[in-house]
Amino acid sequence: MNRRSSVQALGAGLALAGAAGLTPSVRAQSGDWPAKPVRLVVGYPPGGSGDFTTRTAADELSRELNVTVVPENKPGAGGTIANELVAKAAPDGYTVLNAGPMALTNALYRKLGYDSRKDFVPVCQLAVGPMIICVNNDLPVRNLRELIAYAKANPGKLNSAASGNGSTPHLAAALFESVAGVQFTTIQFRGGAPAATSTIAGDTQVMFATPPTVMGFIKAGRMRPLAVTTPQASAAIPGIPGAAEAGLPGYESTFSFGLYLPSATPAAIVRALHAATVKAMARPGVKEKVAGQGMDVATNASPEEFARQLAAGAPAIEQAVRVSGAKIE
Fold this sequence. Notes:
With 329 residues, this protein is of the alpha/beta class. It has helices spanning 24-29, 49-65, 80-87, 102-108, 116-119, 144-153, 168-180, 192-201, 211-219, 243-246, 267-281, 286-291, 303-324; strands at 38-42, 69-73, 95-99, 120-130, 132-135, 159-162, 185-188, 206-209, 224-228, 254-262, 296-297.
């Protein structure tokens, strides 16, 4: 059985012709779009990977589209509040969603105010990355093997800080428990920032975190990183071993973010936004900026490729949710 919690598919960036902004042919096909500011909505609070990718994309898309792209945080309910807002927005290209794979919320929530399979059209992935397995500095473990041994010797006595029930870090931790044969006591927090604060304070001892949430704390020596949640080390997070390298083969969990539009959006606008996104994420310095947050820029050759990638990754995400036991009414 494949226990990977997600499929990491690095889309090939497509180099599109034209100088700054959209090419004349694309602009002609998409009419006057964009003729006013664009909202870029994300379902998570400031400070995490969703917020970081949203603000990065908004800055770079503003330059490519020659209009202001305004980042807008609409946190709550695991991102579904933002999802529903965009699903019900006018399909005119002026309200865009930045979100992880929809398969996650589909598997977690029994009832949603939208149908992700019918109400959205995938546009383009932005970035992908592993999470970091961190521990409180006072915990007497120095590497992943020692963490597993300690957890087995003390079942249920290690508190794991989760950034929300059913969040990607929560699923990564649950999958880790399953693969490693250990048991944590999961403590839920409303986001990655309070979860990290708890781990630093020692109220919780273990945290599976997206890199933007904890990189600053790690660099400051306030948390101890043990491994990333991919088998091998990530070039974007130097100095931290991969899970297989650190002693846990067969374990992998990644997270990603990408852009979506309401499903009735004209195809010409979908393609225009895709073209601008690929160019925006390929702008000088963006790859390095994203890498500084522990992620890799990973765009797609077309909206259709992004849709196929999401469909291919859905079964592994659904499996991770089953392993975690997470369910939200």
